[in-house]
Amino acid sequence: MRHRNIVILTGAGISAESGVPTFRADADGLWLGHRVEDVATPEAFVRDPAKVQAFYNARRAQLATVRPNAAHLAIARFAARHPGRLTLVTQNVDDLHDRAHAEIAPGPGFELIHMHGELLKARCTASDMVCNWREDLEADHPSPHHPQGRLRPHIVWFGETPLEMDRIEAALQACDLFLSIGTSGAVYPAAGFVQAARFAGARTVEINLEPTTGRRLFVEGVYGPATETVPAFLDTLY
Ligand code: BJW
């Protein structure tokens, strides 16, 4: 075993070949036809809850049409045989990592953190209670948890604090290998994780379709479609 404590950060690129659109692919800056600030901020939800709920309803429904790809499954296979600690931090709100790890049970040192939330969960605006949710949400969806609450998507919007930051920071401080897969590095704090990993002395590798603007922060880069590069790279670790 060349590495004991591993952190893998994933972004939209790992799910692209499953058919889930990435965020920053369009030259016109539109994201599934929306400006990101029209749908992914708390202010947008106050201004136009129907539009925000409809956007997330469509994405939640789309999850039923996609499946984990060879990159998700390669990480799941790796997690099943890695004897050390493996922290998989995903910025993705889809459930494709969850489904891959449900198919191939991970080892005891594995944890999966959805730092930007999950499409298949909803949160009460009054109590912050989180529940599993597969149906559409209405603009003013009453919360089962609190008489004054509404249900909103369990998504971390711009300006909100990402989830599980303490666990992520602890894993980064202890890691000896950091892999960043399919993320543009445009959104913080995830974009800064590579620096924390370098500070810990870790080997740092960017795996992407093409070098990102943050390429210089990584010691190594592996480029090509995730379904090919991720299984091949993980095979080199044993
Ligand atoms: C492939 C591939 C294939 C394609 N194979 N690869 C000014 C300066 C610095 C920071 C800020 C600033 N102003 C504001 C901020 C902070 C802000 C921020 O970073 N803004 C930037 C826009 C500048 N961040 C926040 O507000 C965050 N909160 C925060 O900072 O709180 C303070 C705090 C910090 C730390 C501790 C405590 C408190 C919250 C960010 C929330 C992000 N939310 C979103 C939307 C919600 C989720 C949803 O609706 O789905 O999350 S934004 C969107 O971007 C989404 C993603 O998770 C996130 C990252 O995108 P990702 O995954 O990188 O996708 P893309 O599309 O950008 O890239 C895809 C990549 O894949 C590309 O590189 C392709 O090449 C590659 N690819 N096909 C391999 N087949």
TrEMBL record:
The active site is at H116 (proton acceptor). The keyword Transferase applies. NAD(+) binds at Q91, N92, V93, D94, G182, T183, S184, N208, L209, E210, A226. Its EC number is 2.3.1.286. It holds the Pfam family SIR2. The keyword Transferase applies. NAD-dependent lysine deacetylase and desuccinylase that specifically removes acetyl and succinyl groups on target proteins. Modulates the activities of several proteins which are inactive in their acylated form. HAMAP family: Sirtuin_ClassIII. 2 residues (Tyr-56 and Arg-59) present in a large hydrophobic pocket are probably involved in substrate specificity. They are important for desuccinylation activity, but dispensable for deacetylation activity. This is NAD-dependent protein deacylase.
